[in-house]
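User: I'm writing a tutorial on reading structure tokens. Could you give me a worked example: one chain, its sequence, then its tokens, then a sentence or two explaining what the tokens reveal?
Assistant: Sure. Here is the example chain.
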Amino acid sequence: TVYALVGLIGQHCGSIDAAQVMARYADRLVQRIPVHERDKWDLSDIPTEPTEGLARFLYALMGDVDVRTRWRTAHALRRLARLGDTGTLHRLVELYGRTYESSYRKPDAPFYWLSASLWLVTALDRIAAETPSAVGRHGRWLLEIASDNEFPHVLVRSFAKSAVYKLVESGALRLDVTHGRLLKRANTSPVRRRKGREP
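And here are its predicted structure tokens:
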């Protein structure tokens, strides 16, 4: 019944009227929940723009404890890129390195920010192969990650380097000689390998 009423309101009310009706009904529903069981939200932390809200939600899922959730989220991002929704992708890139998430996770649930960073770059690497035009503008940023010595995460840098190579090969990104050398040196040891001893 409640959902049917919401649908009816959405069809016949203007945005201001619908918001007032929803606020009244929401308040009634909240009063039925015991105080100790209510979730508290910081409304100033919740985006009002849909693209930013979706990006925050996806990034929170990439930092989930369940690897299956991260996997499905990465595939969702790939599909968004294929459908041309680059706005969400660009917003996700801005979230890279975010170490906390209070609004899109349960307060007592951990947010694995390292995993979120890794799965985002992993997804971008795959998108660079499938839809390079969607991530071409982030090529220099990916190069910075690949050569970042302050956060030398081997896997993150490896996927970022791979993504840049794919963007260059597809023509979505052009690098000058200096940046080309930086890409080649990225995530590689300056120490030469020694040959193993013969058994």
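What the tokens reveal: The chain has a mean pLDDT of 91. DSSP finds ten helices and no strands in the chain.
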